[in-house]
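Private note to self, pasted from the team thread so I don't lose it. Backbone tokens:
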């Protein structure tokens, strides 16, 4: 054998294994005995027929596989490689970066709220000190002096 045909051997084995697995599942899903032939009831005949039993077993396998895939996606287990396509760790890196930025944004928002409260307290203190200073100057001179404007922030 030359080198070009050696690459096809694993693919052939994979397809043969896949085909055998599907065949075993179909044969295993088909009931070997049935009680439907012994009963005269139409419901028993329909529900006990080999075709119906096979269909229900296939549906049950499909639901199980679908539920497993959804659970893995929900838990963050990502498909890494499918044929020639490969997903690197960039998805996990992006997710971690998004979470980090969300935490930083929450911390920054908390800091902004704290600074707003501090600024409001400072404005109140400045206003009170200005009023006290004006009252002291008025008491000393007996005149009403020019009041400094206080900047109010909203």
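Design output:
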């Amino acid at each position: 054998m030359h080198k070009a045909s050696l690459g096809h051997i694993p693919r052939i084995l994979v397809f043969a294994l896949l085909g055998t697995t599907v065949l075993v599942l179909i044969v295993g899903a088909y009931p070997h005995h049935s009680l439907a032939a012994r009963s005269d009831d139409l419901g028993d005949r329909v529900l006990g027929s080999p075709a119906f039993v096979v269909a229900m077993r296939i549906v049950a396998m499909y639901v199980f596989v679908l539920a497993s895939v959804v659970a893995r996606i929900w838990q963050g287990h990502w498909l890494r490689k499918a044929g020639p396509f490969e997903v690197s760790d960039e998805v996990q890196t992006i997710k971690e970066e998004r979470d980090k930025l969300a935490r930083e944004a929450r911390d920054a928002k908390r800091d902004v709220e704290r600074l707003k409260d501090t600024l409001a307290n400072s404005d109140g203190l400045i206003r009170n000190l200005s009023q006290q200073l004006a009252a002291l100057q008025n008491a000393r001179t007996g005149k009403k002096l020019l009041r400094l404007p206080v900047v109010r922030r909203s």
